[in-house]
Amino acid sequence: MANSNTKVIIDIKDLSISFAGQKIIEAFSLQVAYGEKVTITGRSGAGKSTILRCLQGFMQPEAGSIHIAGKPLTPDTVWAMRASLAYVAQEPDLGTGGVREIIERPFNYRANHSLKANLSRLPEYFEIFNLPLDLLDKEIALLSGGEKQRVALICAILLDRHIFLLDEVASALDQTNYQAVAKYFFSRRDLTVLSVFHEPAKYDFSDRVVELPYYSRGG
Amino acid sequence: MNITEISLGGLASAYLLLIFPLGIILWNRLPILGQTLLAIVRMTLQLLLVGFYLQLVFRQNNYWLTGAWLLIMIGVADLSIIRGCGLKMARFTGPLFVALLAGAGLPLLFLVGLVLKKTFLMEAQYVIPIGGMILGNCLRANIIGIRNFYESLRKNQKSFQHMLGQGASLPEVVRPFLRDACQAALGPTIATIATIGLVALPGMMTGVILGGANPMTAIKYQIMIMIAIFSGTAITVMLAIKLTMKSSFTAWGVLDHRIFKV
User: Fold this and answer.
1) In 3-state terms, chain A is what percent helix, strand and coil (to 5)?
2) Which fold has domain A8-204?
3) Predicted ipTM?
4) How many domains does chain B have?
5) Is B115 found in the same domain as B75?
6) Å from A5 to nearest chain B CA?
7) Do A109 and B158 touch (CB under 8 A)?
């Protein structure tokens, strides 16, 4: 539990989720403080990814509530909240096209117009995450899973997101690249990271590990 | 030139031509004899009924009867499109009806009023055949367009959610899907326009020529109708997607999967 005098940025209360008639999550609560790095762990199918989907408003819980930065997650607030969240999937589906085009695309959305200048920092982040710059001219489909994950991370960082939801993000990364990602997030105390992992070896990613009990099945 | 009237006996003798297909079916013992006979009976009855009704519509030539016929055509097109797209009727019938009404109505009014310069805009002689041709073509284009749009959204759910997650608004996320759907829907009409007259004489031209008009008149009508079909198709596809979208997403901006039949 986040210390009561630190600012809570993610507040999940008594979350219950069923899928196809089966309970996946029951009365799950979690508070994440601003800048904290928290990992949710649990066996495959315990519903870890489902929690991340709920935080983005792509799935609705049966009971319980979610507050982000003090505001309740509702159909009205979800649009603004999505603009503060970054979700990076195990196998990110970034659409089709060239890598540069994929990275630049979200800056054309009205909500991100003011962030266009951030694109000048692209080479810097490619270096931090060990990606060669000539990757920018490749088709996204030709990239490996690990490369796609890092492209998605860079994109989210350039979009000035401050809450990162990482879904098994280290699964496709080798040790060097995994360390690069972990090192970057630990160097940014202003970024909050909620990650889900099922491999014990990756627990060192965070300040705190929360184990999710296994109910039935889920994603 | 005037069209030669077909006598009842003459029409009956046309049925004699069926000896060939029926002979081939019987000779090869194809299991489609019943289906063929039923199709021929249905065609005869349907066209006779339509013929009687149209005779009445043409004789009366008033707003109500012509309008009712147009609305029936739109209604039938509406239901066939939704069925062809594999979508649930209840949510889509209304919005699609509006789209078809606009897509058929606008080009029709334009042609009858501005091109043919008729003061009576519901002139049955023009409104019914031209309306039918526009709607018939809208049917195919809309099935392609609407199905392409929703199936593609369903298939690319992850990248759709990725875009939402990156801060896109619903219109922004939908734009690439809408673009692809419109292109797929309009493609066949553009191909038809490009090859018209070379591959086959279009139905309308054939009709006008058979009706005794000079081929240049027939061509002018054909050009007019192709433009009307193209514009009607574009209006309907775009409007149909825009209007059905309103009830196809949840308040959270996620595609509502209950719109699909399967």
Assistant:
1) 40, 25, 35
2) Rossmann fold (3.40.50)
3) 0.87
4) 2
5) yes
6) 30
7) no
